[in-house]
Design goal:
By secondary structure, chain A is of the alpha+beta class. Chain A has four helices and four strands. The chains are: A alpha+beta, B alpha/beta.
Chain lengths: 90, 448
């Protein structure tokens, strides 16, 4: 399974999860886990997704989020989970 | 499952603490490109590099994007040119520079000669051509090995390199002697080093290999900020843990690059390589340990601990460790070193002492423009002696700043940074250097 982390940070507003998950649904990407916190109005969400079923390349998926980034005025990073596993698990 | 805190830690290391993969370097064997006709040899070299490295930069960028970790440089190292060159090496140099530009790599290393015991005709031609080649090419890096623990020091070539460095500085004087920033004089040069300017693809290397250099002085500094005032046991442990994490990512990137390019993985180089950016300094790690400036008494001990702990932490994180592996102390590429040198805390002699306990040597140091060739040779001889006796790699990359004096500044720009011109011991060593010959290899028993 090719897992990726989507981290979303920025000012809290309505519909963040809705917009991100709709975009994922359009690209046939399954969500494996979600955590979110709000600190002083600053929204942080981490979403672990499975890219195996996706109908796009990594680059296309990342580019597809440009419209969501623009709309929500939030920072959205997509990166492979391997880097976290490598760093924190022996 | 990875915890949120761990994810934040990784993101913080990359976004705030300048953690990056410093280089993916593709080593390419060029021995099969040898040809009696220098121009034909150049064409074969160019074609082979373009064939082998065509996807290097694109693959590096892909990995960078997918894993969210910056890969600052993609580079190429090749067989030492003197080994494959049967005539004039200059057409090959031009071909290498063209290939580097075509492939989009910022440096290509391997305009090199291994002369620790003596010179072949090809070695002599190559060394003679270095000033011209480095002033007329842009991305080509040169290195010369002048000593080894097994062979001793070739003082004839040490003498000649003093002249070569001065000529190179003079020919590139309008760029503050930039040519000399692309020229390294080694003792015990390693065959799989991914870092420039000293990278080349040694004769024991495979047809091609992916070697990766990691970096993260900022991450180590930040980790040490959390253990202020605690004993050195804690300091060493903290550095080890951090080096382990950094190196694991290096290993991951090396494995990915190797798989995607279909090129064998060579080594991960466990290095702390600074840049002139704030928050990316090895000197600041030393200062975090409790020194007012790099160069203060205690600096050599601090560096010894740092260097050793980086290796101990990194070794377990990678399948194959190699290259130079250790903390680098280039002056112009480290803002803390620059500040310490400017303040007069860091002298050439202290830097020489520091090179006894770390990787690699007197690196990116600007010296006054009137420093004689013999004095530069003397500096090289001292550094080579440290490498030879201690069975380690040492190197000299000094830049005579033509028309400038101690206290002036030279500016190279980019990763090469800027440096204060440092004073050099004024006492002469001309008669010592004029002797020539070879300093015999040292005895490695009766070690008291």
């Amino acid at each position: 399974m090719t897992k990726a982390l989507i981290s979303v940070t920025g000012a809290d507003t309505t519909g963040i999860i809705a917009r991100v998950s709709t975009k994922l649904y359009e690209m046939n990407i399954n969500i494996l886990d979600i955590t979110q916190t709000i600190l002083g109005g600053y929204f942080t969400m981490m979403m672990v997704v499975d890219l195996d079923g996706a109908n796009r390349t990594f680059e296309e998926i990342d580019n597809a989020f440009d419209s969501v980034r623009e709309e929500l005025k939030m920072s959205i990073h997509l990166q492979r989970m391997d880097i976290f596993d490598a760093m924190h698990r022996v | 499952m990875i915890e949120t805190g761990e994810i934040f830690q990784t993101l913080r290391m990359i976004q705030e603490e300048n953690f990056d993969i410093r280089t993916i370097t593709l080593g390419i064997n060029l021995l099969d490109c040898s040809d009696p006709d220098a121009e034909a040899c150049g064409r074969r070299v160019y074609d082979k590099i373009c064939r082998t490295a065509s996807r290097l930069v694109a693959t590096g960028s892909e990995i960078e994007r997918e894993f969210g970790i910056p890969i600052v440089n993609k580079r190429i190292s090749v067989t030492p040119v003197s080994l494959m060159c049967q005539g004039d090496p200059r057409p090959i140099a031009r071909a290498l520079d063209r290939a580097a530009k075509e492939m989009g790599v910022n440096f290509l290393g391997g305009y090199s000669a291994l002369m620790q015991k003596g010179a072949t005709l090809a070695d002599e031609r190559l060394v003679e051509s270095i000033p011209e080649v480095l002033s007329e090419t842009e991305r080509l890096c040169a290195s010369v090995n002048v000593a080894s623990t097994r062979a001793g020091i070739n003082m004839n070539i040490v003498r000649e390199m003093g002249e070569v460095i001065r000529k190179t500085a003079q020919r590139t004087a309008d760029q503050d002697g930039l040519g000399c920033a692309k020229l390294v004089v080694f003792a015990n040069a390693v065959e799989d080093n991914p870092f420039m300017a000293g990278a080349f693809c040694g004769v024991g290397e495979p047809e091609c290999a992916i070697n990766v250099g990691v970096s993260g002085p900022g991450v180590v500094k930040r980790a040490l900020e959390k253990v202020k005032g605690q004993p050195f046991d804690v300091v060493a442990e903290t550095v080890k843990r951090t080096a382990f994490k950094i190196t694991r990512v290096g290993q991951l990137v090396a494995r990915e690059a190797s798989q995607r390019l279909g090129i064998p993985f060579g080594i991960v180089d466990l290095s702390l390589a600074p840049t002139p950016a704030r928050g990316d300094s090895v000197a600041h790690i030393l200062m975090e340990m409790g020194l007012e400036m790099a160069g203060a008494p205690g600096t050599t001990a601090a560096l010894a601990l740092l260097n050793d702990a980086v290796k101990k932490g990194g070794v377990m994180a990678s399948n194959h460790v190699g290259g130079l592996s250790g903390a680098f102390i280039p002056v112009s590429e480290d803002i803390g070193m620059i500040e310490s040198a400017k303040a007069g805390a860091l002298t050439l002699e202290k830097l020489e002492a520091m090179t006894c306990v770390c990787s690699v040597g007197l690196d990116m140091i600007a010296v006054p423009g009137d420093t004689s060739a013999a004095t530069i040779s003397g500096i090289i001889a001292d550094e080579a002696a440290i490498g030879m006796v201690n069975n380690k790699t040492t190197a000299v990359r000094v830049i005579p700043a033509i028309g400038k004096q101690a206290g002036d500044t030279v500016e190279f720009g980019g990763l090469l940074g800027f440096a204060p011109v440092m004073p050099v011991n004024p006492w002469r060593c001309d008669d010592f250097i004029a002797r020539g010959g070879r300093i015999p290899a040292p005895l490695h028993s009766l070690r008291n």
